[in-house]
Amino acid sequence: MKAITILQPYAELIALELKHYETRSWPTNYKGKIAIHAGKELYPITPEIKQAVEASVFYSGPFHPTYIEDWTRGAVIAIADLVDCLKIDTADTYQGNMILLYNSKGLLISQFYSSDNEITFGNYSKGRYAWKLENIQMLKAPIPAKGRQGLWNWDDAAAKSEES
């Protein structure tokens, strides 16, 4: 199975279904199952974003460690379907900055305003790419794995045995 390493807190936000797009500087043609690997490092974030992340997790439902520093690192924590890779553009509107997502044929697929948490949890600069994730399933237990840059192949035997 293909995998992508994402630093915390962003990997956890995907696993908790609070983030449905992973933003990258590069596109991918891959579509299919993808393992979400929480990298060993914490992504440096501002106190404001840290507060937004922790508040979102706190209000997301079932008990979960609220503080980013307590989240799993160095393991696969979720499986998702990577269904599309969308080019990011922006537009200024009377309601504020709007993020526009286009597919490879140039069709507008999605749009949202900069006040949306999805924007807070990604880098939606013009010219970047938003990888759309669906059917996100958090694993019952993290599976330790060494991450890599880019898309990489993960031996998902442990995940398959968990599903059985």
UniProtKB/TrEMBL annotation:
InterPro entries according to UniProt: PUA-like_sf
The protein's name: ASCH domain-containing protein
Organism of this sequence: bioreactor metagenome
